[in-house]
Amino acid sequence: MYPRFALEYLRRLLAYPKGKGDEHLSLYLEVADKDSLPDGWSRTAKLTIILIN
């Protein structure tokens, strides 16, 4: 995983090929340094993922 700078916050796309305890792919978009953000912080994000098998 490589963090990508988007807007003004660092984000990570986390991939779990076998899910979290099952056999399904799980993907998560995570704010990298969320503990440094103020209480109540939020951001709307639009994410498009295309998977080709």
Automatic annotation (TrEMBL):
Q: Which UniProt keywords apply?
A: Coiled coil
Highest taxon of source: Eukaryota
Report domain MATH positions: 1-53
Q: Which InterPro entries does the record cross-reference, listed alphabetically?
A: MATH/TRAF_dom, MCC, TRAF-like
UniProt name for this protein: MATH domain and coiled-coil domain-containing At3g58360-like isoform X1
